[in-house]
Write a structure and sequence with these properties.
This protein has about 150 residues and is of the alpha/beta class. Strands 4-3-2-5-6 form a five-stranded mixed sheet. Strand 5, helix 5 and strand 6 form a beta-alpha-beta unit. The longest helix is centred in the first third of the chain and has 15 residues.
Length: about 150
């Protein structure tokens, strides 16, 4: 008969890490394929955009200031202006843009590649939009794009 010993047990072999890079790259590839980029939207202002038949797409990665002009959620006749991430009054837009113009990133491209992108609610009064446009003139920000839905 054979004799069994209880004293010495064999060591467990180390887990093989040879397949680990393959798994990492598969996960990386999966997330690259399934990621969806969202359009910049406002959470502070409600917008029902105007729709038109002919549109032109904006270039990717341009320097821009985004304006949302629309109704305050829960209030009928109250409109807000959101510039980038902040609610701002129409009289402060020129000051904000002049400060932005002094930043090194914007300074050299201000007149050539800087845009003001408007997303405006269909019910917004033109008087408010005109006030904003006057502030843009004061700040020498002349390129304006209007974001709309395609019909």
């Amino acid at each position: 008969m054979s004799k069994f010993s209880k004293g010495k047990k064999g060591k467990v072999p180390a887990a093989s890490t040879a397949a680990l890079p393959d798994i990492v790259f598969m996960l990386l590839f999966f997330f690259m394929v399934t990621t969806v980029f969202k359009e910049k939207e406002s959470k502070k202002v409600k917008i029902d955009k105007v729709s038109v038949e002919v549109t032109e797409d904006m270039e990717k990665n341009v320097l821009a200031a985004y304006y949302w002009i629309g109704k305050v959620p829960g209030k009928e006749d109250d409109y807000n202006i959101q510039l980038d991430d902040d609610i701002i009054s129409d009289s402060d837009i020129s000051k904000y843009l002049k400060e932005l113009k002094q930043e090194s990133k914007y300074k050299e491209k201000w007149f050539s590649d800087f845009y003001n992108v408007f997303k405006i609610d269909a019910e917004t009064k033109m008087r408010l939009i005109k006030k904003v446009q006057d502030q843009l003139k004061d700040a020498e920000a002349f390129k304006v794009l209007y974001s709309v839905d395609k019909k």
